[in-house]
Amino acid sequence: MEERVGNRVGVAGFLSERMLRTAGFVSRGNRTADVGCDHAYTSIYLIEQGIAPRVVAMDVNAGPLARAKENVRKFGMEGKIDLRLSDGLAKLLPGEADTVLIAGMGGPLMERILTAHPETVAAIKELVLQPQSEIAEFRRFIQSIGFRITEEDMLFEDGKYYTILRAEHGEEAPWTEEEYLYGKYLRKTALPVLRAFLEEECRKAKEVLAGLHTAGTEKAERRKEEILLRLKRNEAMTEKLAK
Fold it and tell me: CA-to-CA distance for 162 and 185, rounded, in angstroms?
C-alpha cells in the first residue's frame, strides 16, 4: 500500500524529521523493539525501508495500541509487526530483539524502563534512544548499564532541540565532564545545531538571572549560583566551538 504526504511516499510522510532520524540509527537487519510505539508509524517505517526484518511494537496504553493495530493492518504489516500492551520492556522476552528503540520520553523514565528488566537488556545488542531531558545524566546512565555510546545527532524541530543516541553493548572509559554535557560526537555530526543550542541556552540563562537579580532570598541565591555555573560552561563551550 502506498501513501503520499508532501514529497514522501509511504509511512515516512507521517513521521517527523526527528523520528526519521531516530529510526535511521537502527542497524540494518536488527530485530527491533519499539517501546512506546504510539501509532506504530516508526515500526512500520523500519519494515517498509528494509531496516528491521521484524518489530515488536509495545505501548503501555490500550488506546494508542488500538490505533497502531489499525495502521499495521492499513500498511499490510500484520505478519512482521507484533503488537503488545506492555509497560516498558515487561512483555519483551530476552533475546527477542537486537535493538531497543525508545523516543520522546524524559531521561529518568527511560532509565526506569531500562533498569526494570535487566535480563532483557543484557540480551540487547543496541540501544537507539531519544531522551528529552537530563541528557548529560542519561549519557552517564547508559555507560553504567554496560553500553558504550557510538553515535549522536541533534536537530531543531518545532521550537525544540532533540538529541539522538546510539549505544552498543560494551565497556568504555568514562567521558570528560564536557563530553557528558555536550556530547562526544555532536561536534562532528551536528555542529551548527549544537552552536545554536548553546547560544539559546546562554540567552535563557541570562533572562533567568535578570529575574533573580532582585529576589534576595537564600533559595534565589542558590539558584543564581547554579545558573551562573551553567552559563559559564556554555559560554566557554560556545567559544571553543567557534575556533
Answer: 14
pLDDT tens string for the chain (243 positions)?
344 434 445 899 999 999 999 999 999 999 999 999 999 999 999 999 999 999 999 999 999 999 999 999 999 999 999 999 999 999 999 999 999 999 999 999 999 999 999 999 999 999 999 999 999 999 999 999 999 999 999 999 999 999 999 999 999 999 999 999 999 999 899 999 999 999 999 998 888 887 776 666 777 778 888 888 888 998 898 888 887
Strands 55-59 and 4-5, by their bridges, are unpaired
3-state DSSP call for residue 237? helix
Residue owning grid cell 567521558: 175
Q: How many whole angstroms separate alpha carbon 158 and alpha carbon 173?
A: 35
Kindly report the number of other CB atoms within 10 A of residue 222's CB atom. Answer: 10
Q: What is the DSSP letter of 59?
A: E
- Phi and psi, residue 56, nearest 5°: -100, 110
Which is nearest to 153 in space by CA: 203, 188, 125?
Answer: 188
DSSP state of 99: E
